[in-house]
Design brief:
Length: 275
């Protein structure tokens, strides 16, 4: 059963600008938690670049991972056209969020909610499958203000350890089952850091009902890999945008940097769709 809950000048390197007139622009961005000791790559030193990266792409909606509340608030202070929502993985606002940002003049929320990736998905903060911290999905049913077209956007972050492959597979199965209960005629987009590659069982399960924009868009730019640990040299493609009921026109991996520094330890990805 689906339960609903209402609720300085930068030098940009190798940035692929968004397509003019794109119908729906979606971004997935692992923010990198501000609680880590990242030294020269700490949040206070990259938050302007983070906002500038989003500004260059100008997405309608963004699924983020590892977002702390202060990071979300910092971002909308710099980008007031956006707002964001979501509880953290413990059900409050003190830990990491799957925060979803959206343009207030382009989209409105019809319904929104969240569920946990566990044996008890409706239990806030629940942990099973060997996870060491709660894992969750944040979601909304959006309506485009201009023409009233609707779509679901789900955002998630899978566990990262090598021994978590079974938990990632179970998480994928849980999400696939949840999506299968949605109205068939309403498009669905899933963003996330899945901490596993496209050859995984998790990817195979999710792409039984969804498609991978990187693999299906007629045009794609940037490297396949997304995680680069602030080095700019990506090692694996663990961030995906999956979809059904829309048509991708362009997918890109965004490698924006300034003076050798990056807005996150992941490259964000973006996809343009015809809705």
């Amino acid at each position: 059963m689906i339960r609903f809950r209402t609720l300085a000048v930068a030098a940009f390197a190798a940035l692929a600008l968004p397509a003019v007139g794109a119908d729906l622009k979606v971004m997935s961005f692992n923010v990198r938690t501000m609680k880590a000791d990242d030294g020269a790559d700490g949040w206070a030193k990259r938050r302007d670049l983070f906002a500038d990266t989003i500004r260059q792409v100008d997405p309608d909606v963004i699924g983020t991972q590892e977002l702390n509340k202060a990071q979300g608030d910092d971002t909308v202070a710099r980008l007031p056209a956006y707002t964001w929502f979501g509880r953290d993985r413990h059900g409050g606002h003190d830990d990491e969020h799957m925060g979803i940002f959206y343009k207030k003049d382009r989209l409105k929320i019809i319904e929104q909610g969240d569920f946990w990736l566990s044996d008890t998905p409706d239990k806030v903060g629940s942990i099973t499958w060997g996870n060491v911290m709660p894992r969750m999905v944040n979601w909304a049913l959006f309506e485009r203000i201009a023409d009233h077209k609707r779509f679901y956007l789900l955002d998630t972050h899978f566990p990262y350890r090598d021994q978590d492959e079974d938990a990632r597979t179970r998480s994928a199965r849980e999400i696939a089952g949840w999506i299968a209960k949605l109205p068939a005629g309403v498009p669905v987009i899933l963003t996330g850091d899945f901490n596993t590659g496209p050859g995984s069982q998790a990817h195979a399960l999710l792409t039984e009902g969804l498609k991978d924009a990187r693999l299906t868009a007629p045009t794609h730019d940037g490297p396949d890999g997304t995680f680069h640990a602030f080095t700019g040299q990506p090692v694996k493609r663990i961030d995906w945008i999956l979809y059904r009921g829309v048509a991708p026109t362009w997918q890109r991996t965004i490698t924006t940097s300034k003076n050798g520094h990056y807005p996150s330890d992941h490259f964000p990805i973006a996809a343009d769709f015809t809705l």
